[in-house]
Amino acid sequence: MTHRIRPFAAVAISLAAVLANTTLAALPAQADDELDNIRSTPPRAAAPAAAPATDQFIVGIKGGHGVVSEAAVSNVAGKAAGKLGIAAQNVKGTAAGAQVVKTSRALRGAEADAFLAELRSSPGVAYAEPDIIMYPSAFVPDDPGFPIQWNLWEEAAGIRAPQAWEISRGEGVVVAVVDTGMTSHSELNSRVLPGYDMISDAETARDGNGRDTNPKDEGDWVTTDVCGIGGEEARSSWHGTHVAGTIAAVANNNEGIAGVAPEAKLLPVRAIGACGGYASDVADAIIWAAGSQVSGAPVNPHPARVINISLGGDSPTCSVTTQNAINVARNAGAAVVVAAGNSGSPATGISPANCQNVITVAAAGRDGARAPYSNYGPAVDVTAPGGDITNEDFEGVVSTSNDGLTVPGNEAYEFLQGTSMAAPHVAGIAALMMSEEGSTYTPQMVEERLKATARPLPVACVEGCGAGLVDAATALTSAAYEPPSVSPFHDVSTGQQFYREMAWLAERKISTGWVEDGRRMYRPLQSISRDAMAAFLYRLAGSPEYTPPAESPFADVATGQQFYKEMAWLSENGISTGWVEDGRRMYRPLQSISRDAMAAFLYRMAGKPDYAAPAQSPFADVATGQQFYKEMAWLSENSISTGWAEDGRRLYRPLQPINRDAMAAFLFRLNILME
Fold first, then answer.
1. Which of 14, 122, 131, 179 is the catalytic position?
2. What is the tens place of the pLDDT at every residue in 396-406?
């Protein structure tokens, strides 16, 4: 059992030189021919090889806050510890009302499980979980190269920021960076708001006093074995400074680099120090960043609209403590962006990547393929540039840093790789959108827009990279649609799945629904018939001028039948060929359309684009030789259909009839693709 949560970054090359001539209008493929003071660094590998023990546990008592809760936890923990021949004491409360218990020695494996089991067996305990710690994970750099900010502008994997900057640069939005803190840097200082140091352990914090109002990064260097047996010596990472630069480094100032949202404000919240940081501190950092109360800390006067968490730890489920904190932030209106993790495995095994109400980000290399270290799978929402220094060091992501090996030294720049580098790209795009759309733009809207406007990875990600590569330009320039506060359909609620898409269908008059007893109905869970599908597609095309033939192209469709014109139009445009039975061409108008046939309809509706389906199916229940495989794979690559995740497998359910609510979502996404 691993109890550390770590920044998902890898050190490559540190640049103490200024990277000149970066502008908002256009970014160069490479900077000047030489950079001064390039230094190689040893790998950052503070994580011990063996899974470390933990000496802190979080206990929630039924009934919540107060002295009674503290006493109850103390009593239960004391009895549980006594059975193991150790002592335990309360050390602090969390913002969510739980108590953190520290044992007299660290517990590993079976001992930790036994302690937790004893705690959970108490009738008054709501939950008990390890207070996992976050720590850095790293990759060894190779020789230096020289491309600079490919991640912002290159076609293959860049986020296409310059076009987005024509619309928004993030002004007025606060982005919190829950991380190692921040060092002084000329590219950041004018953007930084007063933050907080949420590290409760003074030794971890290295500032002598635990929690305080100074979020300065004191350095997280470690010596051999200091974080556990097998842990290697490592220099300070300046991880939070690097993440912050990617989000909001000053741009168009003729020095340094450009951030994704260069006019946003940064809120540093320090939760990671030497050997990492406890999940309870990270949870309180999230809550404080969102503007909610944390005991012993002043209320944050600048609540964040976006919270970046480039951290994580091995955990098969999201802990109650972490999920509660994320829910508080989400309910306060903050989009929570998290890194998927660097273990090259399913992100479902990493927390907070496996939590609900987060935007989980995988990493792509410069070629647009999933980076080999990046986690993947159904927990991933989107992918962003994270770098891959397998072949070239400078194919990492460059951002602000510091040249100090232990304590802060001079400001610098550094190339890193990791999902830690990918997540702040998404946080920055979220800030651009929230700045443009205003205070009513919700975290759910941010997530939906990011997914709807993501583009396929140029190299297929069969393991699952979410909706695809984030695209700032498309997210900002595509006509956004805000659904009405009152539903156009009596049987569709505004909080219902796919409400936005169904309301869009109504507004575009793609679907008019039915009128029953004076009320307009959509029947969202009813399967859609093939004749109605023809009408939907005809209207999506703009209801073009068309005179249907006097003789029906289908033996089972009469010329006076409802939607005859639309079905004939589908036939004439090659969108539907129907079936041939006994020498006659049939359409089967009243038959429900299956999901595989729907994929074929949408592919043809898009103009049958050139597309080579991958050799390995993106769906476990769709074979590569199956009818309409190409079309279903195309839907997946273009994020028109994401399917379902079941038992770690991605399913499409090709022969299942498609409901009217899901069809609304498919048409909405297809429309974005075709715009």
1. 179
2. 999 999 999 99
